[in-house]
């Protein structure tokens, strides 16, 4: 495995661990502040709830994502070329063929979903079919297959679930403050109480920024792997078209789904708040890889 791929995977794992660490710290502080005598019970319930939440998201993420954008199965009769490209790339990448879907949108975009290569699906927009050449479409599909091969969907689903858990726990704690006062707190927990409030306010913001950083790194990794499949030039040209595509964001796409797409459907986003790395940086990387 190339050094850059190993480096990206290690950094992504460390970022994910940081989200988990923030969740555990927040759960610890909340349980200590709200009910010190029930600390172990609250922590146990938090762990059980977390696991149930993860399992639910893990097994249903693909169906939720496809239903959210009203994607329809792509039939071989109508999308014969699409099937031929995917079958060729799957053979080259030694992957099982994913289910294929199409969503109505003039925007050039696509995403992969599913918990494993055996339970994966790729969805492309009608804009992809109409605006991209065969070589460019191959590049886009190679990128999405790379996400599947790297188990990125499972990784990003877990990340999203942990970010959601942090936000839920923070909201529960902050809303509980309406029913209590500082005078009700034991003096020896005063500092913990202040720290818990600060962490409950800042943790959801911090974890979301970490989630965005993870998403950006996984995009670079998928681009690199697509290039290894011999599709650097096609993907590079597709990204150029995406850069200058003026089609509006699909109405059914919500911000939570943005990290799944090959390019951010919401084009106006600062670097810090973007789910994807700068498209110019991705184009430059692919140009370098195509020459290597």
Fold and architecture overview:
There is one protein chain. By secondary structure, this protein is mainly α. The protein has helices at 3-34, 39-68, 80-93, 126-131, 134-149, 152-176, 190-228, 232-243, 279-291, and strands at residues 72-73, 99-103, 110-113, 121-125. The model has no long low-confidence stretch (mean pLDDT 81). A four-stranded mixed beta sheet has the order 1-2-4-3, with helices on both faces. The protein has one domain (3-291). It starts with a helix and ends with a helix.
Q: How helical, in percent, are the residues? A: 55-70%
If you compute it from the alpha carbons, what radius of gyration comes out, rounded to the nearest whole angstrom? 21 Å
Would you tell me the overall average pLDDT?
Answer: 81
Report the structural category. mainly alpha
Shape: elongated
Along the chain, the helix and strand elements come as: HHEHEEEHHHHHH
Number of DSSP strand runs: 4
Specify the number of helices: 9
Please tell me the total number of domains.
Answer: 1
pLDDT < 50 stretches: none
Q: What does the largest sheet look like?
A: 4 strands, mixed
Record the strand order, biggest sheet.
Answer: 1-2-4-3
Cα(first) to Cα(last) distance is 16 Å
Tell me the strand percentage band: 5-15%
């Amino acid at each position: 495995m190339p050094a850059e791929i190993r480096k990206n995977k290690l950094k992504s794992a460390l970022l994910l661990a940081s989200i988990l660490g923030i969740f555990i710290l927040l759960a610890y502080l909340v349980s200590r502040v709200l009910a010190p005598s029930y600390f172990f019970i609250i922590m146990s319930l938090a762990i059980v709830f977390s696991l149930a939440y993860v399992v639910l998201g893990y097994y249903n993420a693909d169906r939720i994502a496809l239903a959210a954008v009203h994607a329809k199965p792509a039939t071989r009769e109508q999308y014969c070329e699409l099937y031929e490209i995917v079958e060729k790339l799957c053979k080259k990448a030694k992957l099982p063929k994913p289910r294929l879907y199409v969503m109505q949108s003039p925007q050039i975009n696509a995403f992969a979903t599913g918990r494993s290569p055996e339970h994966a699906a790729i969805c492309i927009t009608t804009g992809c079919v109409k605006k991209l050449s065969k070589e460019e479409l191959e590049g886009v599909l190679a990128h999405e297959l790379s996400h599947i091969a790297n188990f990125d969907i499972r990784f990003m689903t877990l990340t999203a679930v942990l970010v959601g858990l942090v936000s839920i726990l923070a909201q529960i704690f902050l809303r509980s403050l309406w029913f209590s006062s500082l005078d009700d707190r034991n003096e020896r927990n005063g500092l913990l109480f202040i720290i818990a409030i600060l962490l409950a306010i800042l943790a959801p913001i911090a974890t979301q920024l970490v989630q965005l950083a993870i998403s950006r790194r996984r995009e670079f990794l998928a681009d690199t792997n697509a290039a290894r499949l011999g599709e650097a030039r096609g993907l590079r040209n597709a990204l150029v078209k995406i850069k200058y595509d003026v089609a509006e964001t699909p109405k059914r796409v919500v911000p939570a789904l943005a990290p799944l797409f090959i390019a951010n459907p919401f084009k106006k986003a600062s670097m810090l708040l973007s789910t994807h790395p700068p498209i110019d940086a991705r184009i430059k990387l692919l140009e370098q890889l195509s020459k290597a």
